[in-house]
Write a structure and sequence with these properties.
By secondary structure, the chain is mainly α. The protein contains eight helices and no strands. It is found in: Cell membrane.
């Protein structure tokens, strides 16, 4: 989160501000944990809702700033040769796939609170994976549509694409 904020405002590039906010976040989560499971669950649900809303806002607003020319060629020539800036970022892009699908291991933990978990857990896992895949595919589609091949030049391409869509 702080890395994204650094790209949006130079204020967050200041080490004192950056680490001050990081320490503040750690203290905040520690205090939240002291209030017990009910408050942690509420904060977790609010945090998840905020993330989903942010993703949907990016997809909806960003869709209006897509440039068709950013999709041609679909596979840049340098990538097919195995050289150039496109191929060297493959490892980083591949690691995002693992990040995208984290958290699924917690669904079976909730099984004891579910009705008919043998039937519902497979349905929940499949529907969550399909939803996450669609959302991330739409995010990538919008980001590529806004940034094009320059996307590989940014460490936080979604933040940069969102900034280009909504302005400074």
């Amino acid at each position: 989160m702080l890395t994204i904020l650094k790209t949006l405002s130079p204020v967050f590039s200041n080490h004192a501000v950056y680490y001050g906010i990081a320490i503040g976040i750690i203290v905040l989560f520690t205090i939240i944990n002291l209030f017990g499971r009910t408050i942690v669950k509420l904060v977790d649900n609010l945090s998840s809702a905020a993330k989903m809303i942010t993703i949907l806002i990016f997809i909806i607003i960003g869709a209006f700033f897509i440039h068709k020319m950013n999709f041609t060629p679909v596979i840049p020539k340098a990538a097919t040769l195995g050289v150039g800036p496109y191929f060297k970022h493959f490892g980083a892009a591949f690691s995002v796939v693992f990040y995208m699908f984290t958290g699924f291991s917690f669904i079976p933990i909730a099984a004891k609170q579910m009705n008919n978990p043998e039937k519902n857990i497979p349905k929940v896992l499949i529907s969550v994976m399909i939803t996450v895949t669609i959302l991330y595919a739409l995010m990538m589609l919008v980001a590529i549509g806004i940034l094009g091949s320059k996307m590989v030049n940014y460490s936080t391409p979604i933040a940069v694409a969102f900034q280009k869509a909504v302005g400074d």
